[in-house]
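Per-record layout

source: Halomonas casei
name: Flavin prenyltransferase UbiX
length: 222
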Amino acid sequence: MTNTSGTSFKKPITVALTGASGAQYGLRLIDVLVAAGHEVWVMVSKAAHMVIATETPFSLPAQPQRLVEALSERSGAQAGQIRCFGREDWMAPVASGSGAPSAMVVCPCSTGSLSAIATGASNNLIERAADVAIKERRTLVLVPRESPLSPIHLEHMLALSRLGVVILPAAPGFYHRPQSIDDLIDFIVARILNQLGIEHTLLPRWGEAGSAATPPSAQEDL
């Protein structure tokens, strides 16, 4: 896809960060998508800005153009590779089904955003973009991070899953024998990339050369 700057990138992926814990997952996902050569469309909720400042060394600006600059500097993005949209930027391509098609990931996804998406609230651009993804049958991946889950949360997840939305909880596995928090973050990001059909080398797929040894419980079942 050639953007307004004349630079050609791979198909755009929309990444929205909302106010759940786990901002590191969303920021890392942006970095990896940039490294893979994709154009990345970013939306950050007001609550997500607070979470990012709390959980990471970064404090991202709210103004879209300054946010583009901050994320581009962090990820090493080329000019025009990252686009950021404000809460009520209704002219953004993600706001309409007639806009450029894009898979969307909400990472992390707060239970408030989950509820709004499940009910089609569309009170802000993140919710509207998710609504568009659902109605246009595009890939939509939600990465909730909450514990414990109430019946309300579970019912919303079930309703969305039945609509074809991928519910991918931020619950990293340990069979790859993580050595750091970064390894745990990459586990979830790798699972997201798998859903998007994007090749990566963050960790080996199960059963491939280089994967961790088969756990004893699995060996007993073979």
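summary: The chain has one domain: 10-221. The helical segments are 23-35, 46-55, 64-75, 111-119, 125-135, 151-162, 181-196, 216-221.
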